[in-house]
Amino acid sequence: MPPQPAPTPVRRAVTQLDHRLEAVTGHDIDTLWAYRDRGVLDEPHAQLVDRHRTLAKAQIGVTFYLKLLSRLTSGEFPVDGALFLRIDRTVDQLEEAAGTRDAAAQKVLAALEPIEAATTASPSDAGQLSTDDRAALLAIAGGAKLHEHLLTGRLSVTASSGIRIPYPQMQQLERAGLTVRDTSHPLHAGQPVSLTDAGRTALLDARRTPTTPAPKRPARPGDSPSTLAKRR
Asked: Which residues contact 192 (CB under 8 A, 6 or more apart)?
């Protein structure tokens, strides 16, 4: 039996708020989603990404009905009563999908605007986090443990990805309040090391572009006629 071709990955829907998330965080949307899955984000940013995912899903519905409406009006089908009924039903479905999308966008804005305001009020201190420290925090975000060798007594930190973090560097991150270890576990068995809220914030801020200010007066979804008028 010949090998089956790999399925084409589903592309993420582009939303009207993507550029604002990217501007305020300094990360592209795919990176933000990946950070959310790895537990890197603090609570406000995690909530923002969760709401953005709902918005992206709603945008898929809008795009689907737009394409369907375009096909129905392309001349591919006979122009008769059945076609008019399908067009009418599709327009109603498109209007409902657009309403769902706009409601999801409002929830994204409710989570996004406080982050934009905080970023504007407090410029990023990204330069204080070195490349090595950022790499260490990323590794720790995926899970890491501090071990003590039973014979030599040497301490070492190993991440779930296999990356080794020098113990002095881990101590420095710990003193800075960026990481914490679970001392309820014995060292010889491995003490779990995780990011603090400050560590998640520092990691997110590390790649934020300080010269890219958040928009001051952004347009809200619904300010322009983006949805179809209610059919009578």
From this structure: 143, 144, 145, 181, 182, 185
pLDDT tens digit sequence for 2-30: 445 444 444 578 898 998 898 888 888 99
In single-letter form, the type of residue at position 196 comes to: T
- pTM score, whole prediction: 0.59
Tens digit of each residue's pLDDT (9 = 90 or more) over 164-190: 888 778 888 888 888 988 888 877 788
The residue assigned the tokens 């592209």 is 28
- Give the tokens for residue 88: 């009418």
Q: What is the dihedral of CA 154, 170, 35, 111, to 10 degrees?
A: 150
Cα torsion angle, 129, 132, 138, 141, sign: negative
Identify whether the C-beta of residue 113 lies closer than 8 Å to the C-beta of residue 44.
no
In Å, how far are 81, 88, 169 from 107, measured between CA atoms?
40, 29, 40
